[in-house]
Amino acid sequence: MAMFDIYTDYLICQNKHATATGLSEMLAGEIAHDQVTRFLRLNEFSSKSLWNYVKKPVREHECASGALLLDDSIEEKPYTDENEVNTWHYFHAKGDVVRGLIF
Predict the structure, then answer these.
(1) 74, 52, 27: which is closest to 35 by C-alpha?
(2) Cys-Cys with 33: which of 4, 20, 73, 81 at CB 3.0–4.6 Å?
(3) From residue 100, how far is each of 14, 35, 96 by CA, in Å?
(4) pLDDT (tens digit, 9 = 90+) per residue, 16-74?
(5) What is the pTM (predicted TM-score) of this model?
């Protein structure tokens, strides 16, 4: 599996802060954290590169009668007990980690 796919899968499944060390630990050291850091440093990850990566599968599902919407909205729940659903997430609008639900 390519490093890009491994890293994006890690970001998707990570509920807290994503780190190169965390990815390495999750893979039981199969990939060193230095490899992850080097991969991130040596590659460009812009909106354009993301679109080039997903354009083909998006176009396969394109139709005139529908729309594909992608969003990861967070409903803050600071006073609700933490559990599998209500947990800590990085909230880009606030630039900080908040407790809540992703929907």
Answers:
(1) 27
(2) 20
(3) 15, 32, 12
(4) 788 999 999 999 999 999 999 999 999 988 888 888 988 999 899 888 888 777 777 88
(5) 0.55
| Residue 53 in tokens | 């990566």
CA distance 55 to 38: 26
- Degrees (nearest 5) of the Cα angle 64, 69, 71? 175
CA–CA separation, 80 and 23 (whole Å):
29
Q: Which amino acid is at 87?
A: T
